[in-house]
UniProtKB/TrEMBL annotation:
Keywords associated with the record: Endoplasmic reticulum, Heme, Iron, Membrane, Metal-binding, Microsome, Monooxygenase, Oxidoreductase, Signal
The protein's required cofactors: heme
GO cellular component: endoplasmic reticulum membrane
Transmembrane regions: none
Main EC class the enzyme belongs to: oxidoreductase
Keyword Membrane in annotation: yes
EC number assigned by the record: 1.14.14.1
Family to which the UniProt record says this protein belongs: Belongs to the cytochrome P450 family.
Signal peptide region: 1-25
Binding, heme: C393
Alphabetical list of Pfam families matching this protein: p450
Full protein name: unspecific monooxygenase
Length: 448
């Protein structure tokens, strides 16, 4: 009986503490729905489609509102004007990256995606310079991507028009481009090490977009003390980092500081230049984290957009011109997480890309969203799939070039044939949290 009383008192104290913390900070924050003790607004959010929930809240509370994920407040910025003001107008203030516990568990705040402060600035500046030196935005990299596109077409021809799931093949091509920049090497699509690497990257992307991972982000203690798919994510990250470390060691043995071959060589040379700087951000651990980030950012986002592109072309065979911008507008990255003065802040990119004033019927795939009355391409300030401001995607130029060259090469080489009637093709994402994961599908690539 005493134990029950103690338990009830303990739970009651936790609830009261939660209520006090939420109410004490509420007056300083934008309006929002009333949170429940401990869980906050989680039960009012559809974790399978967070952007849809954000849209509903914005209609009630305006373009800037507060949600509680657990006991922690998060300010949500919704709509073009508010997002542009936050990321572009106050880019420096909102350049910090918000907390993502599962990733912090693996990289300890290193790398380029989830680092902050001086560490982030130095690694980002170095990475941008190095990527440009190796051809990002230049003809040399375009030639490399075109060569990979030819390898992709050759692999697709190997299906001989039989039904195939394009997920793996469409992931190999952008991953190989990243490999050529980081390792100065591309892999055969049947290479065993390459297959395992692709499997780990693809599996992590799927798991990180599940509702369970959002729960783990709200309650980080679950990561340490409960079983679940998050354990698989950590195991996969450990494999990727060990793979990268192996490549780093190979590079160290054959390094020529006067003739850097790739990103790893450049990083190792930078490490040597700063070996007497005890506060240097250029360490082996930082190199592994950064290379892992480049793989994650440069492989799954591009391959997912390619998969959605082909799926939408199957759904809309009447579209004869590539609506590349509309692929990214239709199913973009959902949101961007940052922090400001200690408070987590989410800027909803989907709310901008799905603005119904700029894009009539935004839920409908329509390349006409980016055409003027004469049928010419029309630029839109609302098109920001790579975000804007200080934290915009480092590899935007690379991704744009890959998407265009891969898609056009495929469409010039094949007729796409669906296995079902186009009206029966489902395009709704199977996961819709940080990114949109398309449903699995099969198609035939018929050589022209």
């Amino acid at each position: 009986m005493d134990a029950v009383v103690i338990l009830v008192l303990g739970v009651s104290c936790l609830l009261l503490l939660s209520l006090w913390r939420q109410s004490s900070g509420r007056g300083k924050l934008p309006p929002g729905p009333a949170p429940l003790p401990l869980v906050g607004n989680i039960l009012q959010i559809d974790v399978r489609d967070i952007s849809k929930s954000f849209a509903s809240f914005s209609k009630v509370y305006g373009p800037v509102f507060t949600l509680y994920f657990g006991t922690k407040p998060t300010v949500v910025v919704h709509g073009y004007e508010a997002v542009k003001e936050a990321l572009d107008g106050h880019g420096e203030e909102f350049s910090g990256r918000g907390s993502f516990p599962i990733v912090e568990k693996t990289n300890s705040g290193r790398g380029i995606l989830f680092s902050n402060g001086r560490k982030w600035k130095e690694i980002r500046r170095f990475s941008l310079m190095t990527l440009r030196n190796f051809g990002m935005g230049k003809r040399s990299l375009e030639d490399r991507i075109q060569e990979e596109a030819r390898c992709l077409v050759q692999e697709l021809r190997g299906t001989r028009g039989s039904p195939c799931d394009p997920t793996f093949i469409l992931g190999c091509a952008p991953c190989n481009v990243i490999c050529s920049i980081i390792f100065k090497k591309r892999f055969d699509y049947k290479d065993e090490d390459f297959l395992i690497l692709m499997e780990k990257l693809n599996e992590n992307f799927k798991i990180l977009n599940t509702p369970w991972m959002q729960v783990c982000n709200v309650f980080p203690a679950f990561i340490d003390y409960l079983p679940g798919s998050h354990k698989k994510v950590l195991k996969n990250f450990a494999y990727i980092k060990s793979y990268v470390l192996e490549k780093v060691k190979e590079h160290q043995e054959s390094l020529d500081i006067h003739n850097p071959r790739d990103y790893i060589d450049c990083f190792l040379i930078k490490m040597g230049q700063e070996k007497h700087n005890q506060n240097s951000e250029f360490t082996t651990e930082s190199l592994m984290a950064t290379v892992t980030d480049l793989f994650i950012a440069g492989t799954e986002t591009t391959s997912t957009t390619l998969r959605y592109g082909l799926l939408l072309l199957l759904k809309h065979p009447e579209v004869t011109e590539i609506g590349l911008n509309d692929f990214q507008h239709f199913y973009p990255l959902n949101f961007f997480i940052s922090h400001f003065q200690g408070t987590a802040l989410i800027t909803s990119l989907t709310s901008v890309l799905h603005d119904d004033q700029e894009f009539p019927n935004p839920e409908i795939f329509d390349p006409g969203h980016f055409l003027d009355e004469n049928g010419n391409f029309k630029k839109s300030d609302y098109f920001m799939p790579f975000s804007i401001g200080k934290r915009m995607c480092v590899g935007e130029g690379l991704a744009r070039m890959e998407l265009f060259l891969f898609l056009t090469t495929i469409l010039q080489s094949f007729n796409l044939k669906s296995l079902v009637d186009p009206k029966d093709i489902e395009t709704i994402p199977i996961a819709n949290t940080f990114g949109h994961v398309p449903p699995l599908y099969k198609l035939r690539f018929i050589s022209v």
